[in-house]
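Suppose a colleague, Dr. K., hands you the sequence of a protein chain of 1212 amino acids and asks what its three-dimensional shape might be. Before reaching for any lab equipment, you can write down a predicted structure in token form. Begin with the sequence itself:
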Amino acid sequence: MQDTSPVATPSRWQFWIDRGGTFTDVVAKRPDGSLTTHKLLSENPEQYRDAAVAGIRHLLGLKPGEPVTPAQVECVKMGTTVATNALLERKGERTLLVTTRGFRDALRIAYQNRPRLFDRHIVLPELLYSEVIEATERGAAEGEVVQALDLGALRTALVAAHASGLRSVAIVFMHGYRFTEHEKQAAALAREVGFTQVSTSHETSPMMKFVSRGDTTVVDAYLSPILRRYVEQVAGEMPGVPLYFMQSSGGLTDAHAFQGKDAILSGPAGGIVGMARTAALAGHAKVIGFDMGGTSTDVSHYAGEFEREFETQVAGVRMRAPMMSIHTVAAGGGSILGFDGARFRVGPESAGANPGPASYRRGGPLAVTDANVMVGKIQPRYFPKVFGPGANEALSFEAVQSHFNELAGQTGRSAEVVAEGFINIAVQQMANAIKKISVARGYDVTRYTLQCFGGAGGQHACLVADALGMSRVFVHPLAGVLSAYGMGLADQNVIREQAVELPLTADALPQIAAQLDALAQAARDELVRQQVSGGAVTVLRRVHVRYQGSDAALVVPFGDIDTIDGGFESAYRQRFAFLMQGKGKVVEAVSVEAVVAGDAPAEPRQALHEPREVPRAETVRMYSGGAWHDAALVVREAMRPGDVVAGPAIIAEKNATTVVEPGWEAQLTGLDHLVLDRRVPRPATFAAGTTVDPVLLEVFNNLFMNIAEQMGLQLQNTAYSVNIKERLDFSCALFDSEGNLIANAPHMPVHLGSMGESIKTVVRENAGKMQPGDVYVLNDPYHGGTHLPDVTVITPVYLGAAAHDKPLFYVGSRGHHADIGGTTPGSMPPFSTLIEEEGVQINNVKLVDRGVLREAEMIALLQSGKHPSRNPQQNMADLKAQIAANEKGVQELRKMVEQFGLDVVQAYMGHVQDNAEESVRRVITRLKDGAFTLPLDNGAQIQVAIRVNAKARSAQIDFTGTSPQQTNNFNAPTAVCMAAVLYVFRTLVDDDIPLNAGCLKPLEVIIPPGSMLNPNSPASVVAGNVETSSCITNALYGALGGMAASQCTMNNFTFGNAAHQYYETISGGSGAGALTDGEGQVVGGFAGTSVVQTHMTNSRLTDPEVLEFRFPVRLESYEIREGSGGKGQWTGGNGGVRRVRFLEDMTASILSNGRKHGAFGAAGGGAGQVGINRVVRADGQVEELGHIGQADMRPGDVFEIHTPGGGGYGAA
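The predicted structure, expressed as tokens, is then:
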């Protein structure tokens, strides 16, 4: 596209702009309808105040400071990362949170889970609000006003906050999404007092879930003032010019209606619109978007309509607002390359724009871009010359070469082999991200076109397509500025949503329709108010439907009952592969989208020329697939429609470089689009060899982990129990033919190390009897189980129908079922003394026989015994979900073997274990001998001695001296003890290594038979998995000496009656600890973290509003218990105080520890405070309970749990 100077015509210019983190891209539509582009740095304060306005002035030929007027410019449509960057860097407006009394810490505690499983120092995302006011008010789940809002007290508090300089406020009240009166009163008061930004939760995100709605409201209050200032700055330089901004949902909105909560994905959303519109024009019906920039890559899926998420997490903040479904992975052109002696690593850190990659001539580190320079895929002569101190030099090949030569020396292979290795790892990471949005959701990605855009996409597109088995790639001529192009093609839209929570029945439809009509009218009015172009307004009505008791709502078009039902069932089957027969459906929410259609892309179609020898600028050397090739270097402008370029070749253009790999060919279509097709079938050649390749080691680490994660997603999405679906109390893993753990998605640590014992039981007891299509189930603590509610489903993996006489791998999934029988609902009885009182024992039972589900036999087993399961149908639903999760693992393992060959896969199953073993051995050399005895509240003790053999780099862990097996239920089967040892030693490795059986190889663990950690049947074990496992991990840290104890309990709280059963684990404080250097010397310390799940658990807590909506209880408060952490140079984390008021008769039980002995301090630090369990009766009478206790609750009674604080580290 040639730039021509603007000519005076009656019509005017349009500007479509994407202001990114590094570059600002401008696409301008001239008065004659032709397009031109301009790229400039987003931040260049010496040259201009704002990049977007500077870009417009440049193209209009105006001088700096000259106004941009409506006479020249029809409109400006833009996307901006201003809000995203403010969120990532935590540079938003100081914000005040006003919330219901008792919930001041609710957004900080959130769902209790920690973000990274194996970090001893738990770091939670920084909070966005600076101060909190607790308003005296309370509404119930059904709308009854429990306590009216005290406006007088609120006014006083708001005036004080305003006087301290706060101007932005977020108002979030319990159940405020449905019952809005109190929030409205508080908002009116805040405006009256002088707050300039007031965000209420019912306007920001009228959906159930206090935590995510609260986070969204705070984000809105935090970012909206920043956006407002930016909008005014831009509008101020273009008085009177209509200005529109792109929202996260993919629609444009008037600049003055642009809100913080809708701005997070403003830039990337433009890319998806550009992708979808250009793909439709070119006839690609199904595309995977692949937008690779400098720091990260965004991947997306499009098959005819935009996919939106209504709940997602960005920069550690839970967002409940409509957003384009985009998955981001930290692999971009600037991702830093490293070698740790065993594995090649790519990212997640980025070299940024300054200093940038090594080739940028600013002394930066090696990055992905440099690897492409090394192998000749980027030719510095054909890359913009904007580098060096004068910003006028080419990329530096010399800097790249010297860095790679150094790595070549360390690894004993040539520089180009090293560079290609890094590229392969980056490609694998991007392919895994694409799998998460496609394969994991039931889409067959091989039938899609990979549409590639963004600065670095074209260099990797063929390789990413090959990694996924895709055979077509599409590159638009504006691929380098596609986000900006998308701004110009986007619809203008207004989305409104509202919680409904009604059953999906014919009777409820009129009420649902009435709510949709009201929302539709509001959305339509808003669009008209924004004075859009005279286009017609269309309104799309949608319902968010889910099965009763589940949490996965799917969005389907509104219609009659059969339309909604059919739409939901086909969407559900696509995503989860089966339906929940006989389950009621609920309309959780409704949403409407009012749309004014955007412009269709006006791209002229040219006639195709006869094929010819395409003129090449030169022939260059390019290294690909392990060999050097002579590649044609073609300049894009020299090509004409109909030209075909066979790989290996490089197509260079102004804003992008596209690499045509060997076996691929590129064609230029009549629309000036590049389409790349694989012409030669992909060669499946991977030399296995016995030596380990550091590239393939990293690739397989990622692949094995990705399979376990996909299994986990399948299980979470299809399970029935709240425990699995929402608390995420499950784990999925794959094992080799011996039953050794190979990879485990980072789910529940207590399951991680203990599932291998279950697999080994099945392998041993069914040797020679297994057949393809068999699936086994067990929960028996004396045969590899942990406690009875944790049920493990195991599938042997065969290749081909009768390819081998024994399985080559195993996959397993374990989930905590809602109930498996026993004396109390939920199967966690506090006072059990025999295993039969805890539920139904399942030992190595065949669940599926050669592909046929043995449902009748399984239900008969669940209904047997002294205390049978209370709801066998629910158990069956969860077991079916576990079978489906395993099947996902089987399919992915088969694909892996097809791609790499069986010998390679088996070799790397060994190599990843060796790598983990080596990592643990390295840590062992820094340890010293130690011993520790930890007393339990029930009088038992855990004693452990660690003896280090530095020469052999191994250690002995000896539990001799631990109490004999107990008559109570604090006995822990050996599998639990092994899981605790595995977890602790994994946390000592400060690196992302997979948790697998290799970690245990350097360790000899001695557990005396007949002790409470190796009990004999029929001892009861229900507390062993939760309480004793927490004590074992802390005892091990005590013996190692580097860290104080976290709470030695999980505070298991269950309540129920005939109609309801509920179970939760309540978090406390984590221990403070030491920071050490590579030699094991203490160089500093860290404080503990308050109210967070620690060590052996990381289960989520049910949202307060969901809890009250589903159960007849009221959460009075859940707060941080100030001062409960142990004193020390670094203090322990504080525990929490949780108060639950009962509204019906129920039985409540607590199973806990740490009520007599506080979490110990280390290196002179003090112990944390002990926990307290008590019942406060409606008449004010207080009943103290022991560490295990049960109470009959009456309406009005409150169960109060004070959880222990963590220990301190170092003398205060």
